[in-house]
Amino acid sequence: MYDLVIRNGKVVDGSGLPAFKADVAVMGNRIVKIGQVPESAREEIDAAGKIVAPGFIDPHTHFDAQLLWDGCAKPALAHGVTTIVPGNCSLSLAPLKAKHRMRLVGMFNQIEEMPLKAFKEGVVWDWETFSEYITRIRKGLAINVAPLVGHSVIRLWVMNEAATERTATDAEIAEMQSVLRECLDAGAAGLSTSYVDMDEKLQPVPSRYADAREVDALASVLGEYGRVLQIVPEFYDSDLTIARLDQLAELSLKYNIPTTFSPLFMNADNVDAVNRVMARVDEQFARGARVWPQVQTRPIDISFSFSVPSLLFMRFPTWYKIMRFGTPDEISAFFSDSENRVKLIAEAAPLEGLWPTLILRHVETDANQKYVGKTLKEIAELRKTTPVEAMMDLSVEEGLEAHFLSAGMGHNDDAKVAGLLNHPRVHIGASDGGAHILSFSTYGDTGYLFSHFVRDLNLMTVESAVKKITSDTAAIWGIPERGMLKEGMIADIAIFDPSTIARGEEKFVNDVPGDGHRYVRDSHGVDTVIVGGGIAWSEAKGYQDARGEVLPGVREMVAA
Amino acid sequence: MPVEQLSRVRKSILPQVGDDWSHIASRELPDLSEKDAIASLQSWNLHVYMRAAARMGTGSNNILPSDVIFVEPPLAYG
């Protein structure tokens, strides 16, 4: 008798080969048979009409904090994601000395838009080392985690305040190498670094003070373990992106490591630039380097209110400064002052093209409900003012709880984006899961891949889409025994209906510690998600078994 | 594919210890006067030079140790 049999489904095994009808039997945490399974099982799932695929792997997330209060990384698991990679962009929550906690919280707040209150009320700070953090998140873990360690955090651990003042000495670099080894031994999947991010004081994050010598030394440690280097390049400029991917290629070749950079967006105005980047990627792969660009599936939609700083206003200093450093009362007063308004209106001139599409999506007062769903251009006409002034006035009237949505801002040319997603040297990822929670939903990118690019547009096959987010990802990241449905592999499985799988409508929910809100999307068409042989989530019963693991590195697996 | 066969991209460097505009100018653009070389470098590297306005960087030198510094203008792509 088996523990679990999934019957009558169509198996898309992650290899990219055509789907086939078969049953899948599981014993313990492993797949033991794929084919005809006449034997009975303690639990059976009828998957008729559905696809049985390996669980999806999301290689770019920031669930570091959420995992401390939610071992399911909700709602990622319900979308079929069985493995996540947190710790991207130079930021992880370990190793972290007690004295640096608030500094790192400030960085997470600034860069990943995680609310300060969530850290204050949702986190019990009972770790310092990476190993202690891993022990901490293992409790109640329902999703697999392959965590990166952040370069900025290692720098802070070794150099303290000097981490954002200068290059490291030889002794400090040697100490960083030792700390990185400890993290990799404790289960880190690799190292992340950033060349663009700014901290809570709008100063460069620690990783940006590292010279090439330091990055080389850390990459050499990754080479000892064959682990991944992830970077955020200056993605707004193709020449800079190419220079960074050349830098990665040299490290990849020198130390025989996989590297990945994200994001890479395809917009109407940067098609040639992205083509140049991809041509360079192709050349570097031809040399034998591994430089995987990560491309997200969803278009860029940004929501905002003036109660928290928004990405949308980062390039407008007066706007961003008051959003970043002002209290709600100060922001309201600033918006109401006539002299400030002149300055703000002038600075926001480049947003002119947004007003006809920028929508008011939520208000608190009854008086303004009549404007919800209308564009700022329409609201301005009704209120006999300008769109930018209408935005400020509504925000003040709503105590800064007027929420706006700018949809389809980029990465929305379907044919061109599909061209990238199908590219053999593109890594599908960059969801940013768990981050930017007040700007957009970072959940449901896999549902969007299947509903939009596979089913609606027929620009990808379901087999190639599954391969891209399962076995390809496992191979790139060196994640052993996952990413394919094969006898002997660990049973991480997503069962979904290809005719209905989708991401749900974006909604604003109140489930963040500290009475916080975030944008999420429910899963549609996902039937059952299995992690380590246990049913972690099903549409019928919700969240169930918690068999998630912190995935061991290659060295540990070999030693075992 | 040997590195020599990679297609030409815009030439850049990573800063060496102690580099500032003047050091990079004298090393990378020795045929220009220091003033012209620095002006050229700054115009080709607005992502670094414009940090002065935002008061970012290491003291009076706004070049970060991790910066990519272009040592020629953008190439003409066609």
TrEMBL record, chain A:
Residue intervals passing through the bilayer: none
Keyword Transcription recorded: no
Database matches in InterPro entries: Amidohydro_3, Metal-dep_hydrolase_composite, Metal_Hydrolase, Metallo-dep_Hydrolases_sf
Presence of keyword Hydrolase: yes
Gene3D superfamilies: Metal-dependent hydrolases (3.20.20.140)
GO cellular component, one term: cytosol
Domain Amidohydrolase intervals: 43-227, 373-533
Highest taxon above the source species: Bacteria
Alphabetical keyword list: Hydrolase
GO MF term (any one): hydrolase activity, acting on carbon-nitrogen (but not peptide) bonds, in cyclic amides
PANTHER family: COLLAPSIN RESPONSE MEDIATOR PROTEIN (PTHR11647:SF1), HYDRANTOINASE/DIHYDROPYRIMIDINASE FAMILY MEMBER (PTHR11647)
This protein's name: Amidohydrolase
Automatic annotation (TrEMBL), chain B:
Domain of life: Bacteria
Annotated protein name in UniProt: Uncharacterized protein
